[in-house]
Specification:
- The chain is α/β, with parallel strands linked by helices and 272 residues long.
- It has a single domain, classed as Protocatechuate 4,5-dioxygenase, Chain B, CATH 3.40.830.10.
- Strand 3, helix 3 and strand 4 form a beta-alpha-beta unit.
């Protein structure tokens, strides 16, 4: 019998660009997010053996898994101060976990391969630098599949669920609202409408029925205004799949980000 504690899974709204390294109003707007990310380690049963990140900033035709033991950095943002392009998050990788993730995905009949060159994108290093600033926990990234199929990503999450009892923290990193052309006060109505729907589904729907509603996310109020491309929503499907039948809790919520944007993060699994 496996008596190891089971880790929760997360969907994190990771904020805008390299915000922890900025100063001024943009950085100040992320204060609630900062506090929630600092609290995250306290919500775990113990220090993770490793972290598996599914970031909205990496997609491939088929699933790829970062296998570099010493991952580099991917500065996938534009127009920020020069010093933000020399940020380092020097957590090690884990070729062992990478191979395990690849095999778990292949075991459900999906294609998967290792990527020895991929580095940490800001969907990974930004939240982790706040939650785990020591960078002493091995981190592996898993790509999205570029067709954005919710059911496929949910099934991948289900396949990865056993890792939760092996000391692996599974995090989907995106944004519950991601329309960069409406990332200001014009986002107030669509972001609130979509966030209300998302909370109804995640927090109030029985876990065994969550997928059916999430598969039709595009029919939700203001869905395509909230996500013209769903790259920042699909990591949620992996986190929900890995959560199995665990209940969800809201672990971060902001309804006035940058003048009116509503965003949320969710934890699946109880506090310890």
């Amino acid at each position: 019998m496996n008596n190891k504690p089971q880790f929760p899974t997360y969907f994190l709204s990771h904020g805008g660009g390299p915000w922890p390294w900025l100063e001024g109003p943009f950085r100040d707007a992320m204060e609630k997010l900062k506090i929630s990310l600092e609290e995250l380690p306290k919500e775990l049963p113990e220090k993770p053996r490793a972290i598996l990140m599914i970031s909205g900033h990496w997609e491939e035709e088929d699933f790829k898994v970062m296998s570099n033991p010493h991952p580099g950095m991917v500065y996938d943002y534009y127009g920020f101060p020069e010093h933000t392009y020399s940020i380092k998050y020097e957590a090690p990788g884990s070729p062992e976990l990478a191979n395990q993730v690849k095999e778990l995905i292949e075991n459900i009949g999906l294609k998967s391969s290792l990527d020895s060159e991929r580095g940490f994108d800001h969907g990974t290093f930004v939240p982790l630098a706040v939650s785990f600033p020591q960078a002493d926990i091995p981190v592996v990234q898993l790509s999205l599949r570029s067709d954005y199929d919710p059911e496929v990503h949910f099934k991948v999450g289900q396949a990865l669920a056993p890792l939760r009892r092996e000391g692996v923290l599974i995090i989907g990193s995106g944004l519950s609202y991601h329309n960069l052309r409406m990332f200001n006060a014009s986002a107030m109505k669509p972001s609130r409408e979509f966030d209300h729907w998302l909370q109804e589904v995640i927090l109030k729907t029985p876990p065994e029925k969550r997928l059916e509603k999430l598969k039709s996310w595009h029919l939700a109020p203001s869905a395509r205004l909230a996500h013209p491309r769903e790259d920042h929503l699909i990591p949620l499907m992996v986190a929900v799949g890995a959560a199995e039948n665990d209940n969800a809790q809201l672990c971060y919520h902001e309804d006035d980000l940058l003048g009116g944007i509503t965003v949320s993060s969710f934890r699946f699994g109880g506090l310890f």
